[in-house]
Amino acid sequence: MKERLLELKAEALEKVANAGGVKELQQVKVEYLGKKGPITEVLRGMGKLSAEQRPLIGQMANDVRSDISSAIESKQATLEEAALEKQLEEEKIDVTLPGRPIHAGGRHILTSILEEIEDLFIGMGFAVAEGPEVEQDYYNFEALNLPKGHPARDMQDSFYITEEILMRTHTSPVQARTMTNNEGKGPVKIICPGKVYRRDTDDATHSHQFTQVEGLLVDENVRMSDLKGVLNVFAKQMFGEDREIRLRPSFFPFTEPSVEMDISCKVCAGEGCSVCKGTGWIEILGGGMVHPNVLEMAGYDSKKYTGFAFGMGAERIAMLKYGIDDIRHFYTNDVRFLNQFHKA
């Protein structure tokens, strides 16, 4: 048995020395030190030995196990160190190379414009109100003085889900809901930003989905001059102090009288150019005094309360402010376009 143990030790140490990797070394460990290994087989035959030989062979077997185990641990440390050195050499970093820039994201231009508009009107005492994009026909049309059969209710203009439910075509329903919730009591001073939907052919200036910001002020003794003052402040803060405004008569079912607002062209300063089509003015939004029918349907006494309302497209504001020539740029997610406005 002594000779067999020495023979096994020599074989194991030779295989440990020749092992080329950690996996191969583990196989040697299992082969010689495992429960089914040859050393264990030798120890199972110790019952045939005399009482004097058993402790000697037992001690020798333990020493052989210990020597093989120590050799394996030493070899494994050497192999792991060599593997680490190889990995470090292969993954060596040249610290003199310039760093890779981190491209940080930013607010979408429409988000920035909406926040700018909201901050502007909040500064004038308006609150921000929101409502559902899937709207009832009543609030979208009837409560705004648009009875059944009105051309604006045509199925070609609106996305109807049922006869009484549709995707809102403007944010005016938020105004109607807010007035109705107030039950005809007290003033209302809100802006209503949000997405709206209409059946339209997408091109450079039209989209089936766009963003509106509408405003409403209802109180006692509200006049057209108040509307003009608010819009004048808006135009100058949004487009520059040198911008002038003008109001032209128009028609909207929910306001009477109604107006369209133009701002002086910033390209030609009102002299006339291709941008303003030679007029010196650019149409920007619509508004007017809230129709008495709208006030009455919301529960307000139209003899006591008056109000004004206005509405604008956020995309149009952004296009005019930054010289953007195609509304589709806002929705195509072209990073070359979006990166221009990260600081906007």
From TrEMBL:
| Cofactors (names) | Mg(2+)
Q: Which residues form the Aminoacyl-transfer RNA synthetases class-II family profile domain?
A: 106-320
Q: Where does Mg(2+) bind?
A: 256
Q: Which GO terms describe its cellular component?
A: cytoplasm
Superkingdom per UniProt: Bacteria
Q: Which InterPro entries match?
A: aa-tRNA-synth_II, aa-tRNA-synth_II/BPL/LPL, Phe-tRNA-synth_IIc_asu, Phe-tRNA_ligase_II_N, Phe_tRNA_ligase_alpha1_bac, Phenylalanyl-tRNA_Synthase, tRNA-bd_arm
Q: Which SUPFAM superfamilies match?
A: Class II aaRS and biotin synthetases, tRNA-binding arm
| CDD domains on file | PheRS_alpha_core
Q: Which reaction does it catalyse?
A: tRNA(Phe) + L-phenylalanine + ATP = L-phenylalanyl-tRNA(Phe) + AMP + diphosphate + H(+)
Q: EC? A: 6.1.1.20
Locations listed in the record: Cytoplasm
Q: Which Gene3D superfamilies match?
A: Bira Bifunctional Protein, Domain 2
Name the UniProt key words of this record, in alphabetical order. Answer: Aminoacyl-tRNA synthetase, ATP-binding, Cytoplasm, Ligase, Magnesium, Metal-binding, Nucleotide-binding, Protein biosynthesis
What GO biological process terms are annotated to this protein in UniProt? phenylalanyl-tRNA aminoacylation
Q: Name one GO molecular function term.
A: phenylalanine-tRNA ligase activity
Q: How is the cofactor bound?
A: Binds 2 magnesium ions per tetramer.
* Similarity comment: family membership: Belongs to the class-II aminoacyl-tRNA synthetase family. Phe-tRNA synthetase alpha subunit type 1 subfamily.
Note the subunit structure.
Tetramer of two alpha and two beta subunits.
Q: What is this protein called?
A: Phenylalanine--tRNA ligase alpha subunit
Species in which this protein is naturally found? Pontibacillus litoralis JSM 072002
